[in-house]
Structure formats: structure tokens, C-alpha cells
From TrEMBL, chain A:
Residue positions of the active site: K78 (charge relay system), S168 (charge relay system), S192 (acyl-ester intermediate)
Lineage: Eukaryota, Metazoa, Chordata, Craniata, Vertebrata
EC annotation from Swiss-Prot or TrEMBL: 6.3.5.7
Top-level enzyme category: ligase
Protein name per UniProt: Glutamyl-tRNA(Gln) amidotransferase subunit A, mitochondrial
GO biological process per UniProt: glutaminyl-tRNAGln biosynthesis via transamidation; mitochondrial translation
Automatic annotation (TrEMBL), chain B:
Catalytic activity, reaction form: L-glutamyl-tRNA(Gln) + L-glutamine + ATP + H2O = L-glutaminyl-tRNA(Gln) + L-glutamate + ADP + phosphate + H(+); L-aspartyl-tRNA(Asn) + L-glutamine + ATP + H2O = L-asparaginyl-tRNA(Asn) + L-glutamate + ADP + phosphate + 2 H(+)
Name of encoding gene: GATB
Single GO molecular function: glutaminyl-tRNA synthase (glutamine-hydrolyzing) activity
InterPro entries documented for this protein: Asn/Gln-tRNA_amidoTrfase_suB/E, Asn/Gln-tRNA_Trfase_suB/E_cat, Asn/Gln_amidotransferase, Asn/Gln_tRNA_amidoTrase-B-like, GatB, GatB_Yqey_C_2, Gln_synth/guanido_kin_cat_dom
Organism: Periophthalmus magnuspinnatus
UniProt similarity note: Belongs to the GatB/GatE family. GatB subfamily.
Protein name per the record: Glutamyl-tRNA(Gln) amidotransferase subunit B, mitochondrial
GO CC entries: glutamyl-tRNA(Gln) amidotransferase complex; mitochondrion
Assembly information from the UniProt record: Subunit of the heterotrimeric GatCAB amidotransferase (AdT) complex, composed of A (QRSL1), B (GATB) and C (GATC) subunits.
EC number: 6.3.5.-
PANTHER family documented for this protein: GLUTAMYL-TRNA GLN AMIDOTRANSFERASE SUBUNIT B MITOCHONDRIAL AND PROKARYOTIC PET112-RELATED, GLUTAMYL-TRNA(GLN) AMIDOTRANSFERASE SUBUNIT B, MITOCHONDRIAL
Biological function: Allows the formation of correctly charged Gln-tRNA(Gln) through the transamidation of misacylated Glu-tRNA(Gln) in the mitochondria. The reaction takes place in the presence of glutamine and ATP through an activated gamma-phospho-Glu-tRNA(Gln).
Alphabetically ordered keywords of this record: ATP-binding, Ligase, Mitochondrion, Nucleotide-binding, Protein biosynthesis
Amino acid sequence: MLIHLHFIPQASLALREGKVSPVDLCRKCLNRIKKTQHLNAYISVTEEQALIQAQEAETRLLKGSPKGLLDGIPFAVKDNFSTQNIKTTCASRMLKDYTPPFNATVVQKLLDQGAVLLGKTNMDEFAMGSGSTDGAFGPVRNPWSYAAPYRENTGLDPNSDWVVTGGSSGGSAAAVASLTSYLALGSDTGGSTRNPGALCGVVALKPTYGLLSRHGLIPLVNSLDVPGIITRSVGDAALVLDVLQGVDVKDSTTILPQSSSAHIPEDVDVSALCVGIPKEYHAPGLSMETVEQWSRVADMFERAGARVELVSLPHTQYSIVCYHVLCCTEVASNMVRFDGLEYGHRSEMDSSTETMYAISRHEGFNDVVRGRILSGNYFLLKQSYEHYFLKAQKVRRLITEDFKHVFNSGVDVLLTPTTLSDATRYSDFTKEDNRTRSSQEDVFTQPVNLAGLSAISIPTALSRRGLPIGLQLIAPALQDKRLLSVAQWIEQRVAFPSISDFEEPIEGSERCLKIREHTVQSYKTYYSGCP
Amino acid sequence: MCGTRPPTALTPRSYLTAPRCCLCLCALQITIRGRKWHKMIVGIIDQCCSVCLCCSSPHKLVGVVGLEIHAQIRSNTKLFSASPVHFSSPPNSLVSFFDASLPGTLPVLNKRCVEAAVMTGLALHCTINRKSLFDRKHYFYADLPAGYQITQQRRPIAVDGVLHYNLMGGQKKNQVVRKSVHIKQIQLEQDSGKSLHDDLRSQTLIDLNRAEGQLRVDANVSVHRPGEPFGVRTEVKNINSARYLARAIDYEIQRQIQVLERGGTVQNETRAYDSKWDQSCYFAGSRFMPEPNLPPLMVYDDQASLPPGLDLCQAVVVQEIRDTLPELPSVTRDRLVHTYNILPEHSFILVNEDGLVEYFEAVMGQTKMNARKVIGWVTNELLGQLKQRDQSLSQSPISSSVLAELLELQENGHISSSVAKQVFQEMWGSPGKRARAIIEEKDMGLVNDTEKLHRICQKIVDSHPEEVNAIRNGNKKVLNKLMGLVQKETKGRADPVLVRDILKDKTS
């Protein structure tokens, strides 16, 4: 009976009207987490605390005094966001027993709304990866591996031939795609939210740099990191953005949103819109099916009267190497604190302080992290600083200028693929090393982080293998609301299915293929019902 | 290359000794920064030292020294966190999540520290950078939990200043010589923690309060032959007294000279000065990168230059800080010399003792006594007593008005100067007692009772017939002897003018 509460406004209304209790909703999600345990989407499930929170929400809702928009709504958080008294591991041996004494600002904001935390999601160690295959707790499996389309179209056995989720926020994407959670927080440094969002068939928003606080997010690259929002619909993403955005005194890089509400109109007129298609994004390795989707949506815009223009972002090709230098440099700096002294893994080998540092770090970090630290320290050496770090910063500026130039020439949004193709089988994915994979997989997403822009990945169709394909929209900094409006316009027209459409009816519930049609009405009621 | 500028030294008393004439103090750089969390760095460079002229021959290796002075900013909370700053709090009792470098915490700049840095910059005649940047300086050390220190390497908050100062010079070291030294930069810097090494148990204990409450100096030292480019420099860190500073610099200069004279090369490295062993030993190198979590620091000229929409309580306005700048020590000294016509060396003593200028000026406002006499009282009697008791001026039982009252009594002829000093002594024993009360109680006032004085004088004249004869025979000087005897009889309390008249009368 709960499965039709597919989107946040429906669930929220049902909770307010007492049609469903927060505890039931929470149990439902917890049961589903247990049923989908094979996905390895969660590192820790906070069942006990979640039920307590749900009970508290129930008390509030019964009294008619909900804490906020999300009271009683279950959510999941990537395991690199600090959560008070809940282990935060970054999927690393280094932090496997680390329990922060405080909440990340974005986590706190959700809790302040009354949202119910289900658990912490799996990822690549310290968010370094694009498959969610390189974490200390094992790889995350893409839920679509187990859905009928993949099984039937490929004839493969999902237990041996499952596909990756993408990464590094694969656990969060899998959690939302498998409907264990309404929303999940990811982090996006070079595409870590959009990439798994695309491969798992969910909406993945990378807000403008500085719009969301990074306080409590264990950093990968401070100057590129943003908390990402993964939801089942664009409308849900807008709603969550509304809650999370804004200046935080604990993060000096946060900025004021351009509009106080990210609420988006349900009918958008795109006839005056100019959609840019960057020619450099026809990259080697781009699958035919992804190109087809790209053209399909571009055509949709054209048919609706929008101007679709081929544009150039000439420095795109340097993005990967620029990102590599900046990322490794900040990684080397950010990782120095993990020495096993104050917290984290400390080796038994303590014959000298130096030995203890070295062995603790060797044991605590995987090869990927150690590799990036070594490169980063090389780039920071006085003699290499100018040749690598400073040059990379100059390239970053050029990439930013590319976008600025295009947006100043009248282009409103850019339409691009999010990934090269649909998800890769785990067995194929691991044939290449992490660095090669990351540089291949993040090619469309990284430049956005380098320029600090706002971008979103939305699923548009299932591939012939039965796996999701996503497209990316990019908007200028602080144009997040406009970005969401355009994304919703696409969403309304591509009719991407929910994974539940392919499931056997559960506990006598009706299928929810028709649900989306009711969604528009739900958002309207939802917003009008909120203070 | 030497000789165009005067030799260098610094105003704080502890530094008067530091850049003494040595073979080599051609360049001097000084840095002040905070010792708890936050430090402010004042870099001072001077290209020349006249003392060096006489000892530098073109072929001789001489030292070039720059100093980084780490001084703590007086603020309620730390430079980058909201945890409080208190001197001598229990170890690790004032540590926020950021201070402990928990992952995911971010620095938040303390406005008060920025204002203090700007004020220091203004006091040292620096150019205040309207936009300054923060950097990370990396090195592995147990008391640096983040593995880097946030500092201002590329573009500090203030640059290119000058400090004018005076020191005692000349052959007898009794002449005030006026000097000036260039300030390279002032930078805001987070402090590292404090390590306590327990050699016995081979343990290191870390205190992240970072409140040591003392000045710390790092010296950059290189050697070269005058006229040639500067040599490779080394950094000697963690020097915490002026004496060790001089010793560490001497040691490092001699070490480098020896290395070069043996045909070796000096390595660019950081050395820790170990005061126990009198030698510096190898420390770790460091790497820099921009601090990505702090946007550029902006300060504004005045209210008019504030950008629209800026939160006023967030803005640091230079003009407002300039307006609150107190009178600078050199200005105070000049003013004192000028206003009261006192010696320059006395102005030093006044300025160097906390509160003494105010004390002196308060006394001057309440007495007609000549400033030079007052300065003698203040610098000799008052400071002498304080020193004897190891007390500071604020602990003195004798307020400026109490002293002024005493000096007025002397000035008006109620007591002689020697009695005034006796009364002053008495005052230390019975704090709060006014001079008048002591004089009355101890019967120390001048004896100007004519009848009484006549009696005493008669007694002296009667018992010294030889002296009286001498006077009568024209030797008028002998009168002084008789006067001394009268004063002896009255314990110095007789009015000398009256006594002279009476004795003259009786011996004529």
C-alpha cells in the first residue's frame, strides 16, 4: 500500500494526513534495505535510531506540528558526510571505526526538517573512483542488474554478471534507485553524484559550488567538492535543494542563493530557450545509444521551439589532466591529517613516530588513495609546483572561461551526455585501473566542477541491455532553479520508468506506472500546504 | 654595500641586545606572530649595518640574518575556530573539532585577529593589502594535527613597513642612537600545538590549546662575501629568548662559514635550535599550496568603499582601526622629551615600564616641581623600590597623587629633600598613609621655630669656640661646618635659611 507514495510530496502529504505513519514508512524502507542487501548499497544501516526518529516524527505529525517539509521522510547519506555518533568511514580502513562528534551541515538540515536517517551509503574509498568498486567494504551492485529488462534482454545471470553503479556515490544512487530511500546525499567532485545517478537511472543534482555547505563533508578536493542530491524525480531534487541551500557560518565558501525558493513551475515554456550542444563532447568511446538519446532530447527541444546550437568548449580536452593535478594536490594535503594520532587507524608498529605514520597510512589507505597522495606531493614540491599546480590552475581558468563565453553568447543551458555509455559489467570494469577508469568516466562531468557550475543528470531511457542512460544539463553558476525547470521539462517527456515498474506486485500494492501523472498535482498541493 | 643605513635593532627591550655588533648582521628580518592558535608575523629586513662596515673586508664571509617573530594576538577566540583562548588552561581543554583537525571541519576567520593585524600594520607604517590570501604550509609533526598550518605566504595582510627605534650606543653605551628597520611583512598564521617529549617512556604528549604565552623567534641565516649575492639560507626555529637568539645565530653563522671554508655547500633546510646542546639539528622541509577553504581576505579603506550588500559587522575598515590607534611609543617618547624637557634616555625608561608614562604625567599635573627632579623621583626612587620588591607599577602602594603631595611638600619648603626621601621610605611600610600624616606623626617637619633654633645654634656656638673665632677672623667657610652640626642636631629638619641667619648673627 505504500509503494504508490513514490515521490516526496505524495509521501509527505500522506504522512501529514495520517494516511500512513512515519514508523510504517521507515519499516518499509528498512525491509527493502534488507531485501536488497546483495547490492551492498549501505555501509551501515542505523535501524534503531531511524525507528526512534520515525517515532518522534509520528508524535509530531499526530499533534499536527511537523518539524518541516521533510518530517518523517526517510533518507540516506553517503559515508563521507559526518554523522554524529554514527560511524563515518569514507569506505576506508583508515576510518573504519571513526565516529564523528558532530553532523555535517547538510545532514543537520535534513534532520532539522524531521527527515529520518536510514543509514550511510557505500562509495569508493575517500570518493576516489568512478565505479564504487574501490571501497574497503566491497563494490556496490547496480539494482538494474537484477531488474527484468537486463535479465531478459541480455540473458545474463545478475549474480555473476552484474553491472557497476558508477561512482563514487554508487551506494547513494543504488539506495534511491532500489527505492530503499526517497533521497540520498552524494558528493560530487568530478562527477561522483551525476555519474552513478545516470548509471542507476535516478536524478542527480550537482548544485553550484558554494550553494551547499561542505562543513562535515570529508573532503576530496575542497575547491571542487559539492554535496550532491540524488532523488527519484527532478521535483524532489528541487525540494531538497530548497532545504539544503544557503550560507553556513561554518563554511566560508558558501554563498547566498539567487532565489530563496528552488520551487519550480510545473509547466515550462522552452520556446525561448537556447540549448547548447558542445561539439567536444562527442568524445571517443561515446556509445551509439547514448548519442541517440542525446539527439532525441535535442530534437525534443527543437520541436518545442527552442534554439539548439552547436557550441565549442575548446579546452575540454585538458580537463582530465588539469583535474588530475588539482585533485592529487589537494588530496595529498587533505590526507596528511590521517596519521592515526587523533583518530583513525593506528598501526601496532610504533617503534618510532615516523614508522607509525608510515605503516598506519600504508595499512589504512588503498592503492588508489596512496597513488594520488604520492602524485600530489610530487606536484607540491617546490620544483614542480610551477610546472604542474600553477599550470593546472591556469587551465582551470581557461575551462571556466570557455563556459562563460558560451553562456554569454546567449546559450541558457548545455545538453550533454553524463557518461560514455550505460553501466559496465563489474568483471569488465575492473580490467582497467582506477585512474584510467576515472579519466574515462568523468570526461563529461569534470569540467563542470572545475568551473563551479550547476548541473544535473536525468535518466532518459533504458538501453538495449535494459540499463539506464542519463543526459546532463549544465547551467551557469547560481542558475540551479532554471536548470531544474528545464530538467523537469525533459523528465515529463521521456517517461523513464521506475525500477518498481518491473517488479512483481509487493504485498498486493498496485503498480505505479501511472503515478507520474499525478505527481504534478502532488507538488502543487505540497508546496501550497507548506509554510 | 654597508654604510648607507644605520645599524639595526628593535624597540622591545628584549631585543635591544639582539642585533649587537657582530661580524655580519647586515640584514635583519623580524617577525611577530601569535603563540596560541594565531600568530601574526612581522617581517623586518634591513639591508645594512654600519657596525659591519668596520669588520667586513671584501674577502671575509659575513652573516645575513632575517628574523621571524611569532607573537600572539590578544583575542577571545582562536584565529580559525570559536574555541576560547585562555592563558595556562589545562592541556587540551580549549580544543574545538577544527582545532583537533577532525575531517570535514573548516577554518572560519576571526575578525578580531584581522583587526589586530591591520592595527599592527598601521603602527609599523606598512601598506595594508586590501586583498590578502591564505596558504597551507605542510609538514609532518605530531603537534600539527592537520599536517599543515594555515598562513599567508603569497600575499600577506600587510607589507613594506618601517619601525623606528632607539638604542643605547656610543663608546660608553650611554647615548641614545636613533635607528630604523624595514618590515617585510605581517601575516596571520595559525599556531601549531605544543609537544612535550617524555624521553623516559619514549612518549610525546600533545597539547592542542596552543597557549604558550611567550614570544618565539625563527631566524633565517646565510653567509656571503660583501658585494656578492646572498648565500643559501637556513632557518633556525623555535628560539624563545633573546639570549638564545643571539647564540643560535652566532652558532649558525659560524657553522655555515666553516662548511664553506671546508669547501662544502650550505643546504637549504630548517633546523631546530636545541638550547641544551647549543647546536642546531636538521628539521623537515615544507610544501605550500593555496588554502581552498578560505576566500580572499578583503579589507576596506573606509565606509564609503564598502561594497553594497556587505554585512557591516563582517567588514574590516582600515580608517576605523586607524582612528583607534593609540599613541605609538616613539611618538610618546618624542612628546615627553619635548613637553617636559627631560633626557631621551629617561623617555625610554618611562615608555618601557607599563603605565609609567601615565603615572609620570599624572604627577606632573599635581606638582610645581621641575620635571627633571620629578623624573629622578620616578625613575630612581619609585622604580628602585619596585625593583627591590620585584613588583610592577600596578602593584605600587604609592599612587601618583600620593607622590605628588610629597613632592609638593618638599617644593614648598615644608620638608627637605632628605626628609622627603625618608617619608617616601615610610610610605612603603604603611601603605595608604599620606605624607602629611607621616611627617606629623614622626615629627619630621622642618624646624622653623625661631626660639628653638636660637637655642640649638647657641649651644653649637658655645661648644665650638675655635670655629667661632675662625669665622670672626674672616674664614666664612667655617660657618658651613656649624650649619652641618645644627642639621645633625635636628636630624636635617632645620630650615637652612633661618639657621644661616641665626649663626651669622651669633658669630658676628
